[in-house]
Amino acid sequence: MTNKDILLFDKQLTDEELIIQKSAKEYCQSELMPRILDANRNEVFDKTIYKEMGSLGFLGAPIKG
Fold it and tell me: Alpha-carbon distance 52 to 49, whole Å?
C-alpha cells in the first residue's frame, strides 16, 4: 500500500522532520504492524507498545508551527 502526497506536504518538511518521518515509517512497518496483527488475531492488547513508542519519541512529540 502506498500513500501519495498529493498536497506535497513532504516538500515542506525539514531534513530533521524527514528523518523522523522515515524512522516512524520503518518502525511501524517492521516492528509495530506484525505485533498489531498478532494482537488482533489473538484478541489481546500489548500495553508495552505505549512505552516503546514513548521511548522512541513518537508520543507527545513537540510540534512547531
Answer: 5
